[in-house]
Design a protein that fits this description.
Blueprint: E1 3-10, H1 14-32, E2 36-40, H2 45-51, H3 57-65, E3 68-73, H4 86-97, E4 101-107, H5 120-123, E5 127-133, E6 143-145, E7 150-152, H6 158-172, E8 178-183, H7 189-202, E9 209-214, H8 215-224, E10 231-234, H9 236-247, E11 257-261, E12 267-271, H10 288-300, H11 305-320, H12 334-345
Parallel strand pairs: 1-2, 1-3, 3-12, 5-10, 8-9, 8-10
Antiparallel strand pairs: 4-5, 4-11, 6-7, 11-12
Helix pairs in contact: 1-10, 1-12, 6-7, 8-9, 10-11, 11-12
């Protein structure tokens, strides 16, 4: 059966790394006898340029009908003064599709352990997942801004907390069955409800363990002992900060994929890095995060474990051969790295 995929290259290096991922998917279609219908649409700054909106109606309509969405990267100084910034398109897409759960796997391939800002013995073998609630909390609460004061309201319902905690436990069941829930329950009312609800949901998963960490403590442990974590789940603001902190453990933002899931609709897969306009169109961007995001899509949206693992293994083989892009200390271009992965697939 044909899988319908929408590709949103976006801005900056987005088009280059998306091209790499689509080449890999085209190859995996042949090797695994798969059928993908992949259509590209403007989004972010490209949407503003083409249709006057970062989330053009035609793009949104296509995303709503898709089975999965691949996003490159958005934004850049060109649109800093635009009436609608590219980032508003992403927030709009998350809201329209109900993308409540952001999943970021954090791993450190052996070939780049030396690039981590942390000691090699602390990062070799790191393998955990950050699960961030994405549609609630302070980012979406009521806001007031006056000349002498401002406020941002952080609100969570019990139902919102339950569904993200369940998502974390579902992922933990496929791993080491340990969930670390991060909050600030010693200060915040929303965190008190969060902790109470996490305990209630944990009772539904007797085969897993639950521990609690205050967010400041979790930030410290993530640097000191990152191997202590398996699945980390937290609210929107804390998750934004902690997932970015975790992303530097491998030593390059160009390595990490992510997924955002809804309850019933299509999921969105994207690199964690930005559009890097300073290196756009130079054929030097690291496409790994986009390629691995495509692999996540194969696994999590379509259940194609063999195809996903085949891509991930090929990427590891290429890096172990010393074929690395500039951000990893190598000299390979974007296309050279991509071609090497395609060769490794065979």
């Amino acid at each position: 059966m044909t899988k319908r995929i929408v590709a949103l290259p976006g801005d900056g290096i987005g088009a280059e790394i998306m091209s790499s991922a689509l080449k890999i998917l085209a190859e995996i279609m042949l090797l695994e006898n798969l059928d993908f219908d992949i259509q590209q649409y403007p989004f972010g700054g490209a949407g503003i340029d083409e249709a006057g909106d970062p989330l053009p109606p035609a793009t949104l309509a296509a995303c709503e009908k898709a089975e999965a969405i691949l996003l490159g990267a958005i934004g850049g100084p060109k649109w800093d003064q635009a009436p609608k910034r590219p980032e508003q398109g992403l927030l709009g897409l998350r809201k329209a599709l109900g993308l409540f759960a952001n999943i970021r796997p954090i791993t450190v391939p052996d070939a780049i352990v030396h690039l981590s800002p942390l000691k090699a013995e602390n990062v070799r073998g790191v393998d955990f997942v950050v699960v961030r609630e994405l549609t609630g909390g302070i980012y979406f609460g009521e806001k007031q801004l006056a000349a002498e004061a401002a406020s941002d309201l952080c609100t969570y319902s019990k139902a919102e907390i339950q569904r993200i905690i369940r998502k974390a436990f579902d992922i933990a069941r496929t791993r080491s069955k340990k969930v670390t829930s991060v909050d600030k329950a010693n200060v915040l009312a929303t965190s008190k409800l969060w902790r109470q609800t996490a305990e209630e949901v944990a009772a539904e998963y007797p085969d897993c363990t639950l521990e609690h960490q205050l967010v400041d403590s979790a930030a410290m442990v993530m640097i000191q002992k990152p191997k202590a974590f398996d699945v980390v789940v937290t609210e929107n603001l804390f998750g934004d900060i902690l997932s970015d902190e975790a992303s530097v453990i491998p030593g390059s933002l160009g390595m990490m994929p992510s997924a955002s899931h809804s309850e019933n609709g299509p999921s969105l897969y994207e690199p964690i890095h930005g559009s890097a306009p300073d290196i756009a169109n130079q054929n030097i961007a690291n496409p790994m995060s986009m390629i691995l995001s495509a692999a996540m899509m194969l696994r999590q949206s379509f259940g194609l474990e063999t195809a996903a693992k085949r891509i991930e293994t090929a990427c590891d083989q290429v890096m172990n051969q010393g074929i690395l892009t500039a951000d990893l200390g190598g000299k390979a271009s974007t296309t050279e790295f991509t071609d090497a992965v395609i060769q490794a697939l065979h």
